[in-house]
Design a protein that fits this description.
Layout lengths: L21 H5 L15 E7 L5 E7 L1 H4 L4 E6 L30 E2 L5 E7 L2 H10 L1 E6 L17 E6 L2 H7 L2 E9 L11 E6 L4 E5 L4 H12 L6 E4 L15 H13 L3 E4 L2 H4 L9 E9 L5 E12 L21 E10 L13 H19 L3 H7 L17 H12 L11 E3 L2 E13 L5 E8 L4 E4 L9 H13 L6 E4 L16 H26 L13 E4 L2 E4 L2 E7 H7 L4 E8 L12 E13 L4 E12 L6 H20 L30 E6 L23 H13 L10 H7 L4
Parallel strand pairs: 1-12, 10-11, 14-15, 19-20, 26-27
Antiparallel strand pairs: 1-5, 2-4, 2-6, 3-5, 7-15, 8-13, 9-10, 9-12, 13-14, 16-17, 17-25, 18-19, 18-24, 21-22, 22-23, 25-26
Helix pairs in contact: 8-15, 11-12, 14-15
The structure holds dioxothiomolybdenum(VI) ion.
């Protein structure tokens, strides 16, 4: 907009600014969903099926109803009408488990809700739930972790170029291997929860939601009330990792109970239920065939992926996400299919698709490098594409080569000796491995409102939410930068459907989505301030034309004359105005026909130490180089990548949701039994951002950070494990006993 001078004062963009919501969190005053305790509130506890397949024969609630404090027990007979939602369009009306709770008496997975008990206290509700007697007609279930294409079905081709079969058949060097990643459970510290209130007409729903606007649409339809009669609030999230993107059945149960009993109802999903009722990353089984000339030039890449899915829901992991554009390959085929199992609905988990997909394809690349006797960094550099060959479009900003070069330099890769077990330090065998990372970059629809206030402060409001990644802080930075307001004077309001519709906290896209809308809203508010200044009958800018004044560093001034500047707050106050407002709106690029290929990139270099004599494998060192556009907040950005690397260590070494084949239950369903990376497992992590702005996405060139840091970590670890032990791990997580049994000692 003309007349807005470049800000001369030092910008907060790119700085390692601490979280603006940090003090609230460390002082315990940030209120998460389950912290909301409403007047007269009741507690709900679901009853979970104890078979994985079959039917409910009988459900006896008499004993439960007689437990002191129990107000009601709801089940199929008395829940009343709960509707399905209309088919999803884009990211509207999304839910993973589309069957409303108690819709039929069929059990399709262990733990499926069969009833819900509502009582005066949580303990009474628990006692009531334990007293509900359910008998079942059980049928044989299937939670098998060996996947095969269902009879009569064929793989769905997602992408194809050239002729992979012919190229593979005649190639001199080839790898044909199958890789398995287990079901993984999202384990954010904050449990899923819902606190529902009903005032006789409208619902107020406090939800652990990564997408309040979608939550509202889904709940309104399931409850059969107008959209306007539902308000969803999610102010703070103790993370979600994708598990909280879409509504789950407990949410509608809490709302239905609140309406029936005309009292607020709180339902907190237990940690055990987190393993069965609120999604997981599905088991994947991927066959990769890759071939090359003797000099390492890739000839073909064929990626077939199966993933397990629930009986009723069709969640595709999308393992081929990054396969089509990562390398220059003339012949490519990506195909997938779903295999039904008696498990709860699968859903997006951090870096869905690309993360398990890259484990398979990057592992195959490492195997190919070994077969070629070629350095794995050199193999990747050799096949760097000039454009996105799957779309036939240029990349908006791709610096993969630099990621690999900078990473190799920082890691000391040149000192690597390729022979298995050939590197030693401190009596341990070292393994060094590498893999590349990639993740989508795009924008979702976003609206935002900005206020510049007479007290010199600013307010920005958007119906997105902060999943814990720093959205409050980054939004404050954007407004501080654009309006010249000190960071601590920017109020950020998020997580409420009374605010303008904002993006889902998914796909690492909130930052890139909100910049254009918040930027426009701020510029509009500034323009209002300038009009107020020049339309005034008094004051320093009275009688000036709009073109004679400008806005700089939070002040209105005569063009080019900083000494004439008056703070916007004073300008507003002088005219008895409380506020100047602006609104902004920007459109999605996600799902639109692309004109350029937008992705983030990275390289992961990993060192493991191997001590077979004490059966110990450790990830000791990770160097990660990330090309995610411009980084708006170095501290929040580094924090995201470090956290993602820890998750990658967990993916390679520990994480696995195990189903009991006898009962169909998830058996390691606690934080004691489901292993994740702990502090003691944490390697040293060196994070570098290349920081090339990608201006095709927004005016700062920020692509978004989070999921990219997890991509490529697991295959870099298994590559390092191969280098140390000679054992190629094709089924995660890595098992020490396999390494001990099969290691090749140097
Ligand atoms: Mo993330 S899996 O896009 O919430």
């Amino acid at each position: 907009m003309a007349g807005v001078a470049e800000t001369a004062m030092e910008s907060v963009i790119g700085k390692p600014v601490p979280r603006v919501d940090g003090p609230l969190k460390v002082s315990g005053t940030a209120r998460y969903t389950s912290d909301h305790n409403l007047e007269g509130m009741l507690y709900a506890v679901p009853v979970c099926a104890t078979i994985a397949k079959g039917r409910i024969r009988s459900l006896n609630v008499a004993a439960a109803e007689s437990v002191r404090g129990v107000k009601a027990v709801y089940h199929r007979e008395n829940i009343g009408k709960v509707f399905r939602t209309a088919p999803a369009m884009g990211f509207s009306l999304m839910s993973d488990e589309r069957r409303p709770p108690f819709e039929d008496d069929v059990i399709r997975y262990w733990g499926q809700y069969v009833a819900v008990v509502v009582a005066e206290t949580f303990q009474q509700a628990q006692a009531g739930a334990a007293a509900v007697q359910v008998s079942y007609d059980a049928e044989p279930h299937d939670v098998s972790t060996e996947l095969a294409l269902p009879a009569g079905e064929s793989l769905r081709e997602e992408s194809k170029r050239g002729d992979v079969a012919a190229a593979f058949a005649s190639a001199p060097v080839k790898i044909d291997a199958t890789y398995v990643t287990p079901a993984e459970t999202h384990n954010p510290i904050e449990l899923h929860a819902s606190v529902a209130a009903w005032d006789g007409q409208s619902f107020t729903l406090y939800e652990t939601s990564q997408a309040v606007w979608n939550q509202r649409e889904v709940l309104a339809q399931m409850l059969g009330v107008p959209l306007d009669n539902v308000r969803v609030i999610s102010r703070f999230l103790g993370s979600g990792f994708g598990g909280k993107l879409w509504p789950w059945p407990h949410s509608v149960l809490a709302a239905v109970a609140a309406r029936k009993l005309n009292r607020p109802v709180k339902l907190v999903v237990s940690r055990r239920m987190m393993f069965q009722n609120v999604g997981h990353r599905p088991l994947t089984q991927q066959r990769v065939r890759v071939s090359a000339k003797a000099d390492g030039t890739l000839l073909s890449l064929d990626h077939e992926a199966l993933n397990h899915t629930a009986i009723l829901d069709d969640f595709s992991e999308g393992c081929g996400e990054a396969t089509g554009y990562l390398y220059s390959v003339p012949n490519v085929r990506i195909a997938s299919a779903l295999v039904r199992r008696n498990v709860g609905s699968a859903t997006a988990m951090r870096g869905p698709g690309a993360v398990p997909g890259l484990y398979a394809t990057e592992s195959a690349m490492d195997e190919l490098a070994v077969a070629l006797k070629m350095d794995p960094v050199a193999l990747r550099l050799k096949n760097e594409p000039k454009l996105d060959e799957s779309l036939g479009l240029p990349f908006s900003s791709r610096h993969m080569v630099e990621c690999l070069q900078v990473g190799a330099e920082k890691f000391g890769w040149a000192r690597r000796t390729p022979q298995v077990g050939s590197m030693k330090a401190d009596g341990k065998t070292l393994g060094w491995g590498v893999a590349v990372a990639s993740w989508i970059a795009a924008r979702f629809d976003c609206e935002a409102k900005v206020e510049l206030r007479a007290d010199g402060s600013a307010r920005v409001a958007c119906g997105t939410q902060d999943v814990g990644t720093g959205t409050y802080t980054v939004l404050a930075q954007v407004v501080a930068d654009k309006a010249g307001v000190p960071l601590d004077r920017v109020e950020v309001v998020l997580g409420d459907t009374t605010l303008p519709p904002g993006p889902i906290s998914g796909g690492s896209m909130v930052t890139s989505s909100m910049i254009p809308a918040v930027g426009d809203a701020t510029r509009q508010a500034i323009e209002t301030v300038l009009l107020a200044a020049t339309s005034s009958k008094t004051g320093p800018f009275a009688g000036k034309k709009r073109g004679e004044v400008e806005f700089a560093n939070g002040r209105v001034q005569l063009k080019g004359d900083a000494s004439s500047g008056v703070g916007f707050g004073e300008v507003l106050a002088a005219q008895n105005l409380s506020v100047a407002t602006g609104s902004g709106k920007s459109g999605a690029t996600f799902g639109a026909k692309p004109t350029v290929s937008q992705h983030s990139f990275g390289a992961q270099f990993v060192e493991v130490t191997w001590q077979p004599e004490i059966a110990r494998l450790r990830v000791s060192r990770v160097v990660t180089v990330i090309d995610a556009g411009r980084v708006l907040n170095l501290r929040a950005g580094r924090n995201q990548i470090e956290g993602a690397v820890m998750m990658g260590v967990g993916m390679a070494m520990f994480e696995q949701t195990e189903y009991d084949h006898k009962t169909g239950a998830t058996i390691n369903n606690s934080l004691a039994d489901y292993l994740m990376t702990t502090h003691a497992d944490a390697p040293s992590v060196d994070v570098t951002f290349l920081d090339y702005p990608d201006l095709t996405l927004n005016e700062y060139g920020a692509r978004g950070i989070g999921e990219i840091g997890l991509a490529g970590v697991a295959p870099a670890i298994t590559a390092a494990v191969y280098h140390a032990t000679g054992v190629r791990v094709r089924r995660l997580p890595i098992r020490i006993e396999d390494l001990l049994a099969n290691q090749k000692l140097a």
